[in-house]
Each structure stands twice: as structure tokens, then as C-alpha cells.
Amino acid sequence: MKAISALRREHIGRGLACVARGLLAALLANARIYGGYAPFVIGMVAAAGPGWPGLAALLGALAGAMMFLNFSHALRTVACCVLLFTANNAFCELKSYEKPWFLPALTGALTLIVEAIYVYRSRSPAEAAYCAIAVALAALYAFCCRAVFGAADARRENPRESLVALLGVLAALAAPQFRSGFAPGRMAAVLSVLLIAFDRPLSAALAAALCVGLAMDLTAPGMEFPYTAGYGFGALLTSLLGRKSRVRAAGVFALATVFFVLPMKEQTGLMLLYENLAGTLLFLLLPTRLLRSFHEDGAADVGNETGLRRRLIEAAAALRELHGSIARGEPPAEENPAVVYDRAAEAVCRDCSLRERCWVNEYNRTYTALSDATAPLLQSGQGSGKDFPAYFADRCIRFPAFLAAVNTELRAYLLRRQYRLRLEEARARSVGQYAQFSDLLTAAAECPAGAEAMTAALPYRVGVSQRARDGERVSGDSALSFEPESGRVCLLLSDGMGSGEEARQESAQAVRLLERFLRSGVDAAGALRTLNSALNLRAETTDSFTTVDLLTLSLRSGEGEVCKYGAAPSYVKRDDRVWRIGCTCLPAGLAEDAVPPETTHVRLGAGSYFVMVTDGVADASDDGWLQELLTGWKGDDPQQLSAAILAESYRQRGGADDALALALYLRRDGTAEV
Fold first, then answer.
1. Is pLDDT at 314 greater than 70 in this prediction?
2. Do 629 and 504 fall within a single domain?
């Protein structure tokens, strides 16, 4: 019953959609330009496509043409629509039919073929120009309507195409006029201009107003363009002076209309004034709920933060579900080593005279002998006669051939096992990367903005000193300090494997990638795990790795996290006390994918120092001199401190490795300096 009900609802929905397209086509037949051309309805029928939707649009176009157009233009319009409906059904199976250019080109070509006959008979240059404009509009409208009908949320996904589709409807509504020239439908055009100018950027508001005005001018008699100019002038002033306040926006638009119509002809100016004032009144009377809904959707078009977070969270959930579905799958069962003996026996023992004795009568003894030989075979990877019991080797009349076959099958078995293990490792790594990417998206979506804006930030200074290894011109160490957001500072230090240019490139790339992750709102641990996975994959071909040392510190509270992959110790100095923060895990690129960075919570206050160094400066087994230096340091310049650390390091350890020292000082007063 549920399936039947769902099917019935589906048929009803399709039927209503066909009826809506038919009514829209009939309405668009009333959008006449240059004395009778109806390009919008032609484009609408073309975009409706084949089948029932296209037939509904064709019937609507036929009814609208008979109601709104004179006989000559009705006949031409219906002919174009019939040809397009036939062509849609004939060409819909072609691959090129799905190309964006195909339908507009087809619409323009068929419309030109029909209209060219009448243009040739009139032999009028003006009529030829009108025909060319009508053909171009029909092709453009077909392109835009197809984009709108093909999108689930057309206005959000295709705003420009949706605007063009709206212009045809507005032009149709503007055609009915009173004898005085007043067109109630143009009030809808004014309302649309006000809605766009009320809460959109100036460029978007002005472009939309000019397009709406042009659509109104095309359907109006004469060659003047009062609506294009009037709507554009009103949207310009409204966007500049009346945004965010409905009453102010309406007042500015009305005042702009008054100033604009003063120098115009009396009849044209009065109609424009009446229509604009009526549309402004509609804007004021629009229910607040509808206005709020319109602008909430519009905010999503230009980058709604809530919508972006929702999409990120949905993408993260999809990746997490994909990770779960793959992780739940059972890995293939491990191949039994007995297959080695089975295949060797199949090749050697098939026509042996002792086959019955070995494999039937004394099967248990044969099975025991082969079982005893399995462990040494797998351990050495190559079988020998001493691996098998003497009673089995002496009894087998084809033992040398059997041993050779066993070794051949053993090599194949070991290769298959190695390949399977690599596949399982790659599968596990891929599954882990899905989970990590999901965590990254979730962290970016849930990153708080301005959570600590009410607290004053601690001023700070950063100093860095660097020295290349003796004999090298370039250091393989890289460091960086930056503020990913207001009230938070990050210090990054990376030591590439070895020294020289290649090591510098490795460490600089790690620092650069982490900076991008952290600036995008990803948490430090997630960013480091992702970097470790990427370097793991790269290490399979380059054998490269890098240490990573990261401090993320809130300048509001002084709370921070120190994350390390294989890095040298870091140091916190507060007054005359010094704390060391060590690390025991492997560098990024050597640590397993699932291994998180070593994380330590720190709290710094005004007057505190935080110092990072590479292993060319000091390590956990030789840093007593560094702790003494920090304990006795009384200055407030981190640049001088980093230089002093490097100078003392050279005296203590020489220049056998690259060395870098990075110091952060939270000042007691003043402003942040780097």
C-alpha cells in the first residue's frame, strides 16, 4: 500500500508539474516585443524537453498564442514551438543533446528558419533587426529555463539563469495595460527590483534592475528606455542609502522615481510614477515572514555562514558513514599454507606408484610430516630435505621433484601473502584517511568565531634565529608565527631530514600546509594527523620525514596546546622557573597513521617565555646548559634570547647540524610585535 501511495503521489506531482509548465507557457505568450514577437514562449517550449512536459508546454503555448497574438505572429510562434517539440523528441537520445550549447543553438536555428520567411517577404531592415533580437532572446531563454528546470534549487544554484527566466514572466505580466497606459503587472517588476536592492550588493542590485527595466522596455511601445533608466536609478540609490530598513528603502526608491520622472514627458512620466509608487506600496505591505524568507535565501546565495557549516557537517557525516561501511567489512581470510603441498602433490604425485600408500593408506603420517615441515619452510622461505622427517623423505620415491615443486609453490604463496598484506595496509590507510578528512570538515564547521572577543588580548613579541650546518648555505629548518584568527597565535617549527635545500623544502612544505589547515579553522591535532598521513604516503617513494613542533595559544586566556611529532624539547619560562616539554613519538612521515601527536597543555601569563628549538640546538640528553640560560635570562626581548641560545649552542655543540630557535614573549604592556 505504501508503494502504491508513493507511486500515486509521484504521478500526481508529475501531472502538476506538466500543468504548471503549460500555464507558464500560456502566460509567456503574452510577453510580446516589437509588435508581436514572442521569443520567451519559444524558449520555454524548447526547455520543457520531450515527452509529457514538452507536450504540456506546447499546448499552453498554442492556447496563449491564440489568446494574445495576432494571427500572423501566432502562426509563426506555434510553428516554432511544434518544430522544437518534434526536434526534442527526435534528438533527446543523442549525446550532444546534453551539451549546454545544443538546445540554444537548436532553438535559434529553428526560430530563424521560420521567421526568415516573413522577414524576406517584408524586405524591411528594421524587421530583420527585430527578428535577430527575437531569435537571440529565444535561444537565451531556452538556455536559462533549461538550467532552472534542471536544478533542485534553481535560484540558489543558477541565480543568473533564474533572473532571466523571471524577466520573461515579468514581461508577460506587464503586457496588460489600461487605456491610460498603466500596467498593473509592472508593479511586480518594481517589487522585484526593491527586493533585490534592499539587501544585495550594489553590483548585483544594479545589474538586476537594468535587466528588469530592459524587459519592461522591450514590451512597451516606442524605442525609448524609461524603465531601464528609472529602475537602475532607483536601485542605485536604494542600495546605497536604503539597505536594511524597509521604510527607508521604500522612501529612497520613491524619491528617486520622483526626481527621475520630472523631466520626462507627461504621459510616460506619470505612468512610471504611478507604477513605481504602487510597487513601492506593495513592498511596504509585504508580510515580514515572506521578506525574511527571501533575504535568508539571498544571504545563502552570497555566502551564508550557517549554510556553509551545515554543508560541511553533512559532508563530514557522509565521509564518516563511508568510513564506517568500509571499516565494518571483513578482510579476506588468510590463505592456508597447506595449499603449497596440495599444488605440489597435484603436479608430482598424480601418476606416482606410491600415491595410494602416501595419500590414502598412510595419510595421517603424511599429514604429520608436512605439518612439521611447515614452520621451518615459512621461516626460511626455502625448503630443504632436512625440514621433512626422515621417514617421509626416505619413503617418497620422487622427493627431489616434490621438494622443487614445494619451493615453487612456496615462493608463489609468500608473494601472494605479501601482496595481500600490502592491500590490507593500503585499505586500512584509506579508511583512516576518510575518518581524518571527516574530522577536518567537522572541525572546520564547528570552529567558534569570536568566542573570546570580550577579553583583552595579551600583547606579545616573537623572535627567531637560525643557523645552517657548517658547510651548507641553506638550513633545513623552517619556522613561522601567525594569527589564524583574532585572539589566537600559532608558532610552527619543522626540522627536515638531513640538511641543505631538500631538507628545507620538506620542512617548508610541512609548515605551509599546517598554516593553511589552521587558518581554515581545523584543530591542531586533526591538522597534524592529516599531515602525518600525507607524509607517510610520500615516504614510500621519497624516504623523507620531518619533525613538527606546534604551539596554539589563546591570547585572551593564556591557555595553549603544544603538539609534537618527533620534535626536540620545548621550554616554558615563568619568572625564575623553567619547564621542559619533551616528545617520545616518531617524526611525521614515520609515525603510524593512527598515532596522534603528543599533546601537552600549557598556560602562559604576562612576562612568560615559550621557546622552541630544533635538535641542532639541544635535545633531552644535553639541554642542561639551555635550562640554565633560560633560568638566568632577565631580558624582555625574544629576538635577543633566540640569538643568545644559538650562540651558546654553537659553543656547546658546534655546527654539525642545522639549528633554529624560536621564542615567544608575552609582554606586560604594549602591543604585539613580530
1. no
2. yes
| Number of domains the chain is built from | 4
Instruction: Note the pLDDT of residue 205.
Output: 82
Domain CATH number, residue 648: 3.60.40.10
Judged against a pLDDT cut of 50, whether residue 673 lies above it is answered with no
DSSP-assigned letter for residue 155: H
Residues 494 and 635 in one domain: yes
Q: Which 3 state secondary structure label does DSSP give 304?
A: coil
H helices then E strands: how many in the chain? 24, 10
Q: Is the pLDDT of residue 1 over 70?
A: no
User: How deeply is 600 buried, as exposed, middle or buried, from its count of CB atoms within 10 A (0-12, 13-18, 19+)?
Assistant: middle
Express each pLDDT in 8-66 by its tens digit.
Answer: 676 787 888 889 889 999 989 988 887 788 999 999 999 998 888 899 999 999 999 99
Looking at residue 228, what is its pLDDT? 84
User: How far apart are the C-alpha atoms of 162 and 299, rounded to whole Å?
Assistant: 16
Shared domain for 274 and 143, answered yes or no, is no
Same domain, 102 and 140: yes
- Name the nearest CA neighbour of 48 among 74, 71, 77, 82: 82
- Alpha-carbon gap, residue 671 to 255, rounded angstroms: 49
Cell (9 digits) for 160:
543568473
CA–CA gap between residue 58 and residue 76 (Å, rounded) = 13
**Cβ(205)–Cβ(242) below 8 Å:** no
Q: Which of 92, 121, 155 is the last residue of a domain?
A: 155
In a domain, 577, yes or no: yes
C-alpha grid cell for residue 404?
622443487
Domain membership of residue 325 (yes or no) is no
Residue 444 belongs to some domain of the structure = no
Average pLDDT over all residues of the chain? 80
pLDDT at 452 over 60: no
Chosen domain end from 352, 382, 417: 417
- DSSP, res 568: P
E strand or H helix at 408: helix 399-445
User: Which residues, including other chains, have CB under 8 Å from residue 107's CB and lie 6 or more apart?
Assistant: 42, 43, 46, 84, 138, 139, 142
Q: What is the distance between the alpha carbons of residues 562 and 598, in angstroms, rounded to a whole number?
A: 8
Which H or E run includes 98?
A: none
- The vertex-508 CA angle with 506 and 510, nearest 5°, equals 70
478 and 390 inside one domain: no
> Which structural domain range is residue 128 located in?
1-155
Helix (H, G, I), strand (E, B) or coil at 477: strand
pLDDT tens track for 488-519: 899 999 998 888 888 888 888 888 888 887 88
State residue 32's pLDDT score: 86
> Is this prediction's pTM over 0.70?
no
Separation between Cα atoms, residue 492 and residue 557, nearest integer Å: 20
Q: 634: burial class by Cβ within 10 Å (0-12, 13-18, 19+)?
A: exposed
